[in-house]
Please model this.
Amino acid sequence: MLQSENQLALNIGLNHEQLESLLQATISTRPYFDGSRGQLKLSLENTAFLNALLGVKLPELPKTTLQADFAIGAHYQLDNVALQLGEQQLLGSATFSPQDKHLTASLNSPSLDIDALQALFQDSEAVAEGAEDLEQAITNPAKNSENTDQNEATIDWNALTELALDVAVSYTHLTLPTNREV
Model:
């Protein structure tokens, strides 16, 4: 629905037995979508559908939900981020500067369990395959497009190779790994 000469209201939903997403946004028609804002909601039962959709193997995850408000301007801003990964919860905000290729995030968790997070990635074969698939997608996107339509552009993952990342995580309660060496 066209709200004004420069604004388009957009509501997109995807319902699948393994993935549910909702994007509610006001999209700017200005270059680079400057002035766009909205809300994203994602609920993931497992990673099989995403594996097929993205063409990479992701490790199995517990039920995962993500909610965030976003705004696009000189930077991409995520606010009111709420990520639930099994029993783990992270809240916070993030800013991405496309000019500097710099991602800054500030996250908070009421209770962070390192053992539980590490257990998510214990299937080293799936993690290794996923890393190989992602590396292939970054270094040679054309070979990764075997399941895509001939007219469909491949995702250029190469921008991730130069990403600067600053993340601050605070927590109320921290559970350290039980098998760590002192």
About this structure: Residues 124-139 form the longest helix (16 residues). The first strand starts at residue 2 and ends at 4. The mean pLDDT is 80.
